[in-house]
């Protein structure tokens, strides 16, 4: 579908998305007064996500949904392309989960309030100690039976290509001894790339790859597991993306040195 006229995005769709976000955020806060589990807030987030995808005229097709049906908690790791990644994932994953998110997002009105009250996991990457503390909060959630969703590349891609992965997803999966599930999201970069609010509606695709078991692994395996995670996501992404795969891929990065994981 051709790119919508700028005024349609700026004067109609973006304000409508902002309005929906505020209303759903307020309802989520209201639900949090009596629901301390976060279940109703997650349901509201899923409802919000489907509204956002509907406004953007961009349905999501889930490929290999059987890989999402696990009997245990798991770390779900997805490439990060756009602000629309979050609605795409909340609107597609059919279970309750928590996200590992940059700590600064928790400071924003409505979004930050929802993140805090619904039990999402902040991570501060300004120092090694604060990063490890955030990852350990994620491990605690996993051990309590709550799946974790993380963007291992840390921030959105500026050119649509898969970026360098950090070792946090692998670290949490290994520490909690739970599966690591690669997710390849395709189409959100073209829908809403960085540095613009011009929407280009299109069908989106979420490929759920085969879970990677971590039983018996130690944190010394985190770098190797991160490389495997990145290769798996990149292979699916470039198989369905309009972009050509660069060779070689960026090397994965242990943001926290593996000896201290």
Automatic annotation (TrEMBL):
Keywords attached to this entry: Acyltransferase, Membrane, Transferase, Transmembrane, Transmembrane helix
Signal peptide start and end residues: none
Domain Phospholipid/glycerol acyltransferase: 74-188
SUPFAM superfamilies: Glycerol-3-phosphate (1)-acyltransferase
GO BP field: phosphatidic acid biosynthetic process
Membrane-spanning residues: 12-34
Pathway assigned in UniProt: Lipid metabolism
GO molecular function term, any single one: 1-acylglycerol-3-phosphate O-acyltransferase activity
Pfam families the record matches: Acyltransferase
Keyword Transmembrane helix in record: yes
Name of protein: 1-acyl-sn-glycerol-3-phosphate acyltransferase
Organism: Terriglobus roseus
Taxon lineage: Bacteria, Pseudomonadati, Acidobacteriota, Terriglobia, Terriglobales
